[in-house]
Amino acid sequence: xxxxxxxxxxxxxxxxxxxxxxxxxxxxxxxxxxxxxxxxxxxxxxxxxxxxxxxxxxxxxxxxxxxxxxxxxxxx
Length: 76
Known about the structure:
Helix content is 64%, strand content 0%. The protein is mainly α and 76 residues long.
């Protein structure tokens, strides 16, 4: 799976469960809500403990969890 696909998967889960970004960021916590949302949208990485929380919240695989902790590739 590519990072873009994981972002779409997270957005699909968010929509299906009717979650708000406020709910998601309160469940993951640990960083500013803006940074958590940015990481979930693939713009930055989540620290390992927060990637673990996100993986639990979204029921992600081990591979998906590791991807949340990787530095995203940015193309100019």
